Each structure stands twice: as structure tokens, then as C-alpha cells.
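Field log, afternoon session.

UNIT: design team B
ACTIVITY: writing a sequence onto a fixed backbone
BACKBONE:
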């Protein structure tokens, strides 16, 4: 098994320094208009700011999820690195990555084991809250979401 470089990561140190309210500041608005932030960076800052998600810290070498285990929550990585192992394939994920959202939304067990390579700060996406929101969406939108989730699961 050979470890890979980070498959996905945003520069969390840079974004955290900008601050949770950066997108709503004059400087942030100008940066948005000028195209200085990627969609991943904008999403990171938006999630960083939301009071709807609780935070948690996984210490180095702590198992986050094990293959076959059901996701009770999804995890948005704020800081740190996570190792994902599926069979003999290993991938590394960093800040801005999301673990378990598609699987949890589809009610599927994890197809990989995730371990904190460093101390990992996450925002917790509770499926209980997500399910409450999804229930009030129009049926057509729920079908679109289900299709997107299924497509994402085939690429994992």
C-alpha cells in the first residue's frame, strides 16, 4: 500500500485568517467579484461561519469511521489530514473535504476506513437535521438530490 498526496484540500490557514465573516465584508465582496476565491474556498468560508453545525476534534490516529459502519453524521474537515483506506487503496484528504455525506444520505454503510493522520477539526453535519430539511423539499428536488447522490457514490 502506498500513500498518495492529498486528494483534496483548501488552504485552511489562509481562509481562517480571512475570518468567518469575510464573505460579507467589503473586501470579501470585492474578492468575490474579482474571482479571487474558488467555489471550494467560498463553500469553506460559508460552512466555517454557520452556527448550525457543531464542532469536534479527532486526535491523531483516532479512527473516524470504519468500513461497514453506518454514518450517523457527516464530517466537514476544517483543519487537519484524514487517511481514507478502501482495500489496498489509500487516499489523503485535507481541509474542505466532506466524509460520509453521500453515504449517510443514502443510508449506506461506509465503504472505507477513515483515520485522523493529524489532529482533525471537523464540523458535524447531523443527518437528523438534514432529514428534517429534506422532508419539506418538493418531490422533484428530492429526486434530483437522490440522483446526484447515487452518481457521487459510483465515483467513490
Amino acid at each position: 500500500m502506498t500513500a498518495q498526496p492529498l486528494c483534496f484540500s483548501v488552504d485552511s490557514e489562509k481562509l481562517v485568517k480571512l475570518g468567518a465573516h469575510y464573505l460579507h465584508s467589503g473586501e470579501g465582496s470585492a474578492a468575490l467579484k474579482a474571482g479571487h476565491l474558488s467555489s471550494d474556498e467560498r463553500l469553506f468560508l460559508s460552512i466555517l461561519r454557520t452556527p448550525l453545525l457543531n464542532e469536534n476534534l479527532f486526535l491523531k490516529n483516532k479512527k473516524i469511521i470504519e468500513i461497514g459502519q453506518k454514518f450517523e453524521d457527516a464530517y466537514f474537515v476544517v483543519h487537519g489530514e484524514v487517511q481514507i483506506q478502501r482495500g489496498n487503496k489509500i487516499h489523503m484528504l485535507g481541509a474542505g473535504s466532506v466524509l460520509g455525506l453521500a453515504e449517510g444520505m443514502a443510508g449506506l454503510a461506509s465503504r472505507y476506513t477513515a483515520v485522523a493522520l493529524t489532529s482533525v477539526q471537523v464540523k458535524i453535519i447531523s443527518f437528523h437535521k438534514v432529514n428534517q430539511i429534506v422532508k419539506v423539499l418538493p418531490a422533484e428536488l428530492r429526486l434530483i438530490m437522490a440522483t446526484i447522490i447515487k452518481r457521487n457514490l459510483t465515483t467513490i
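LOG NOTE: Residues 6-155 form a domain with the Jelly Rolls fold (CATH 2.60.120.10).
NEXT ACTIVITY: expression trials, pending approval
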